[in-house]
Every structure is written in C-alpha cells, then in structure tokens.
C-alpha cells in the first residue's frame, strides 16, 4: 500500500489515500436521513456505501483518521473482520518501524506525531514494544526489510519518516522533524561556534581591561 500510494511522509493524509483507491470521502451529514439512520445503526464512526466512504464528522479528527483507514482495510484486505481492519489501520497510520525511528518514548509521542487518539496510540505503542522485542531476538522480517527499503533516503542516508522544505533556504529538505537542511544546519552551527568564540574573546578582553584599570588598587 505504501508503494501504491507513494507514501513517504508522516503523518498520513488519510483522505488522499482513500481517494487513491478510487473511493470518495464524504461526511455523514451529506447523507439523506434514512441512509444516515442506517449508517449510524451499523457504525457511529464510518461506513462504505458504493464507491464512497462516509464518516461521522462529529467524532474527533484523530478518530476520523483511524476510521477512514479502518474502512480502507475492508477494501484492501477484502475482509469483514473488524479486528483485522483495526490492526490494518493502526499499522498504516503508525507503522512500528516509523514509531521506532521517530524515537517515540511513549504513547503520548505516538499520538502527537502520528495524530492518533490516546486509546489508539496506547495500543500502537504496546504493539511497537512487542515488535521491537521480536526484531531484537529474531531480526527483521521480510516485511520489515521492505518497509526499511521503502523509507530509506539516499540523500539523508537513513530511514526518513518525515521531511519538509528547509526553513532557511527553502530549497533542500529537512528530515525527521529538523527545521533546517543539513547544509544550513552546518552553517548555523559554524555561526554559533564563531559567536561563542567572539564572546569568549570579549570576556577575556574585559578581564584584561579590568586588571589593567583596577589591578593595582
């Protein structure tokens, strides 16, 4: 699915992903009263009707995202198993390897970075810890290797889960929540070191002046 939708950046645009599978996304409020009533009886969160995924806009944004990917799970997996589609949604929105490389320390980090509800983030983080333990003991699975290869960036020479245009040059990319690209970051570091050196020289000069003026008093 990540290849099919050219996904290479988190958090996901869940609406766009559903669209790429040929389905429209609409709100429950766009349904006629009888269809709305029928949808709510089936699920308070989301439903598929024909070529459209309808969602309950009265739910939180984070929950809507999860619900959209859950419904996509029914489409991609061709399954009516709700638990299986929940797992699909969780692993699509917050792949365990992406949780690892984004250095999430707890469920709160997962919720913030991947835009999940607290409940979904707790489940994802618990499953991530199981995944990490299995990788430590048994090594990466074939699926893990495919995931790593997909998100590996040749320019950054590492697993990249997020990138944006550099805040300074607006040309190159800053990776994994950095605000500056590597070139601008090195430039800023050099400026900082130079400023610290000048500050140190000024302090030494002030000390020399003080000794010269007051040293003999």
Automatic annotation (TrEMBL):
Give the matching Pfam families. Answer: Peptidase_M78
Superkingdom as given in the UniProt entry: Bacteria
Residues in IrrE N-terminal-like domain copies: 51-133
Name used for this protein in its record: IrrE N-terminal-like domain-containing protein
What organism does the record attribute this protein to? Answer: Lachnoclostridium phytofermentans (strain ATCC 700394 / DSM 18823 / ISDg)
């Amino acid at each position: 699915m990540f290849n099919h939708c050219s996904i290479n950046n988190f958090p996901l645009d869940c609406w766009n992903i559903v669209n790429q599978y040929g389905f429209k996304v609409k709100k429950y409020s766009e349904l006629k009263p009888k269809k709305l009533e029928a949808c709510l009886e089936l699920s308070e969160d989301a439903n598929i009707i024909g070529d459209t995924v309808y969602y309950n806009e009265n739910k939180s944004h984070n929950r809507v995202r999860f619900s959209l990917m859950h419904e996509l799970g029914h489409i991609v997996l061709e399954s009516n198993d709700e638990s299986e589609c929940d797992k699909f949604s969780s692993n699509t929105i917050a792949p365990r390897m992406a949780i690892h490389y984004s250095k999430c320390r707890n469920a709160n980090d997962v919720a913030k970075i991947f835009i999940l509800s607290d409940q979904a983030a707790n489940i994802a983080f618990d499953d991530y810890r199981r995944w990490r333990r299995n990788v430590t003991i048994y090594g990466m699975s074939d699926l893990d290797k495919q995931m790593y290869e997909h998100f590996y960036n040749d320019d950054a020479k590492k697993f990249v889960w997020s990138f944006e245009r550099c805040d300074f040059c607006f040309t190159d990319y800053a990776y994994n929540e950095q605000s500056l690209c590597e070139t601008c970051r090195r430039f800023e570091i050099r400026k900082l070191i130079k400023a610290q050196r000048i500050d140190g020289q000024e302090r030494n000069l002030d000390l020399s002046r003080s000794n010269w003026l007051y040293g003999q008093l």
